[in-house]
Specification:
The chain crosses the membrane at residues 31-52, 64-81, 117-141, 153-172, 178-200, 238-258. The protein has 274 residues and is mainly α. The chain has one domain (2-267). It has helices at 2-32, 35-56, 66-96, 99-102, 109-139, 150-171, 177-191, 203-209, 215-226, 231-236, 239-267. Helix 3 (66-96) packs antiparallel against helix 7 (177-191).
């Protein structure tokens, strides 16, 4: 019996790792099954960004606006494509009834959701980088680099994934989450600095924008890269503490909703359908 309990933790870790890897493989296979759709969407997104900047520059590509807006639109692309993996796939699996099979796994339910997060990162991050690199090369956008910017960049990724997990947790019981996700990501696109830097917005609009995902992280990145701010100054200015708190609230709310909605879906007998 002692040997059984000694081996159990290792077996549990192996099971969890197997389930996690299977979830990542499944998610990537689903996304890569139709590459043409992603290519077309990516091309349209890049053209949209360049077109918007041409309009905002009144017929010119303004060097003072392009670097900051490119960082913001890159964050939006990461948010958009990670949501496609987490939210759209989960809604489709719920409608087809295959989501219920994931709950029959011997691993804890959160392992499969973590697999979706890994898939979202592995799939969305290269797309966001590529979509940012194309306009940067096309019109010669130069973004300076400082290693201290790595901290807000990592917090940006954590903030996006926490929001994405929250949307997926809602989608477990609500088939209209896709519409809600589209609405919120559209607001992010309009307000996070992808059109123009946040500093040019009216104060009330900038305050509202900071409630949305990505905005605080983009503000911190801009302070470090373009204004020469140190991490200490960004922290003392309040941007980094607010970003960490914002991410923590999204993650905690997502974890609570996941447990609640999963429990209610099972109790209602609607695990495999809406």
């Amino acid at each position: 019996m002692a040997k059984h309990f000694a081996a159990a933790p290792g077996a549990g870790i192996r099971t969890g790792t197997t389930v996690l890897a299977a979830e990542v493989r499944k998610g990537l296979a689903n996304q890569l099954a139709h590459p043409l759709g992603h290519i077309v969407t990516l091309a349209i997104s890049v053209m949209m960004y360049l077109g918007l900047q041409y309009v905002m520059g009144q017929g010119d590509m303004r060097d003072d606006l392009l670097p900051a807006t490119l960082i913001a639109i890159g964050a939006y692309w990461f948010l958009q494509y990670s949501g496609q993996v987490m939210v759209a796939d989960l809604i489709e699996e719920k409608r087809s009834g295959t989501f219920a099979a994931a709950l029959m796994s011997p691993a804890p339910p959160w392992v499969a959701m973590c697999g979706r997060l890994v898939t979202a990162t592995v799939f969305a991050l290269p797309i966001a980088v590529l979509a940012s690199l194309v306009p940067a090369l096309a019109v010669g956008i130069e973004i300076p680099w400082r290693w201290s910017a790595l901290v807000p960049y990592l917090l940006l990724a954590a903030n996006i994934l926490a929001f994405t997990f929250l949307m997926a947790a809602i989608a477990i019981r609500n088939p209209m989450t896709g519409a809600l996700h589209s609405l919120l990501t559209s607001l992010v696109l309009m307000l996070n600095g992808a059109f123009m830097p946040l500093a040019l917005y009216p104060e009330w609009m900038a305050a509202a924008a900071r409630l949305l995902p990505t905005t605080l992280a983009i503000e911190a990145i801009n302070l470090v890269l373009f204004e020469g701010g140190s991490l200490a100054s960004v922290w003392s200015g309040g941007t980094l503490p607010l970003l960490i708190a914002h991410t923590a609230v999204l993650a905690a709310l997502g974890a609570w909703l996941f447990r609640r909605n999963r429990r209610l879906a099972i109790a209602e007998g609607r695990v495999g359908q809406y």
